[in-house]
From TrEMBL:
<dbReference type="GO" id="GO:0003724">
    <property type="term" value="F:RNA helicase activity"/>
</dbReference>
<dbReference type="InterPro" id="IPR001650">
    <property type="entry name" value="Helicase_C-like"/>
</dbReference>
<dbReference type="GO" id="GO:0032040">
    <property type="term" value="C:small-subunit processome"/>
</dbReference>
<feature type="short sequence motif" description="Q motif">
    <location>
        <begin position="4"/>
        <end position="32"/>
    </location>
</feature>
<dbReference type="GO" id="GO:0016887">
    <property type="term" value="F:ATP hydrolysis activity"/>
</dbReference>
<dbReference type="InterPro" id="IPR027417">
    <property type="entry name" value="P-loop_NTPase"/>
</dbReference>
<keyword id="KW-0698">rRNA processing</keyword>
<dbReference type="GO" id="GO:0003723">
    <property type="term" value="F:RNA binding"/>
</dbReference>
<keyword id="KW-0067">ATP-binding</keyword>
<feature type="domain" description="Helicase C-terminal">
    <location>
        <begin position="244"/>
        <end position="391"/>
    </location>
</feature>
<feature type="domain" description="DEAD-box RNA helicase Q">
    <location>
        <begin position="4"/>
        <end position="32"/>
    </location>
</feature>
<feature type="region of interest" description="Disordered">
    <location>
        <begin position="412"/>
        <end position="433"/>
    </location>
</feature>
<dbReference type="GO" id="GO:0000447">
    <property type="term" value="P:endonucleolytic cleavage in ITS1 to separate SSU-rRNA from 5.8S rRNA and LSU-rRNA from tricistronic rRNA transcript (SSU-rRNA, 5.8S rRNA, LSU-rRNA)"/>
</dbReference>
<dbReference type="GO" id="GO:0005524">
    <property type="term" value="F:ATP binding"/>
</dbReference>
<dbReference type="InterPro" id="IPR014001">
    <property type="entry name" value="Helicase_ATP-bd"/>
</dbReference>
<dbReference type="InterPro" id="IPR014014">
    <property type="entry name" value="RNA_helicase_DEAD_Q_motif"/>
</dbReference>
<dbReference type="GO" id="GO:0000480">
    <property type="term" value="P:endonucleolytic cleavage in 5'-ETS of tricistronic rRNA transcript (SSU-rRNA, 5.8S rRNA, LSU-rRNA)"/>
</dbReference>
Amino acid sequence: MSDKSFKSLGLSKWLVEALNAMRISTPTAIQSNCIPAILNGRDCIGGAKTGSGKTVAFAAPMLTKWSEDPSGMFGVILTPTRELAMQIAEQFTALGASMNIRICLVVGGESIVKQALELQKKPHFIIATPGRLAHHIMASGEDTVGGLIRTKFLVLDEADILLTSTFSKDLAVCIQKLPAKDKRQTLLFTATITDQVRALQNAPTQEYKPPLYCYEVGTVDTVAIPSTLKVEYLLVPDYVKEAYLYQLLTCETYKDSSAIVFVNRTATAEVLRRTLRELEIRVTSLHSQLPQQERTNSLQRFRANAARVLIATDVAARGLDIPIVELVINYDIPQDPDTFIHRSGRTARAGRKGDAISFVTPRDITRIQSIEERINKKMEKCDKVHDTAVIRKALTKVTKAKRESLMAMEKENFGEKRRLQKQRNIDQKSFRN
């Protein structure tokens, strides 16, 4: 925390009042350091652990500048997932409520026509995933996206992900439609400052533009997880993972805890959701095969505690701020240690305590070693679940629930839509070649 106030950082009076109304009264380190630099017209790279208030660090100075001249399309915020875009849009809407701010959310899974009509109204801030905004730029016409050339700010949130090859084509389309670098401010925020992000520090700056400001909270690379996060592992035979999960979620310590269970594949997410539901656990899921409305509903149910457990792929690993999360379970171990950091960062946010427990099978040992090296910390053994208890209490009924879930998924042809889409993409490539 900082001894500064938001007012002393140079923010508008109305915005300081809005922050106070949201019970945000003392700036964090990333906010104290980045807000004045952005208000002074500097491009900025901000690195800080998850849960440290990065959204306010870029939203507050942008809103202050906008309120001085509230005209047309003022800022574009790009982020890798729909859920994170929706969360950022909520924060902008809440902060700018007293000022009649116009926000446009441009993400996949929603009506393209409706989005095009909203873009034609020249919203002040566009919060988007690169793929959907690129689609509008290429297909929706100048009357829809022409105003982008006058934007004052471009933000890349979760910049380390956006600067990978996955997003490079769409990102290039979006950036080409914006003002040149010397005519806009560019702000990059991330919990993981990668080599691609770091390389931008050394990019040449125009003489008439203030030099780029780069700020990392503490040593982001060596202390990658909060001190309030307890990191544990549980050795689990592969074929009884579901039984261990059920026992952990219903043990005395966690029977009332709000938990996110991370998996690597959508099919696993669906099997676990159905299995836990059969076992009468209040559960929902979040993965790429769900329609957008269902993804939105799942998050809302979990936020409102209507569901106690969220089964998720890595679409939920980044940036999502759900204060109620007390436990993160890595049901599947991610290949990339940074993904582990982002998953675990869904709990123990903003000084609160939280637990992250990883299910480790024999083939996961090298991944766990890489994670321990990356977070600079050894995992402790979890003592909440014991083998005999799992076998005696849970195995039979969990196995039955899983079998029924798999039969229902087969009956409903789960995954067929994705398989057909993949085949269509292969056929189209073959035709073009």
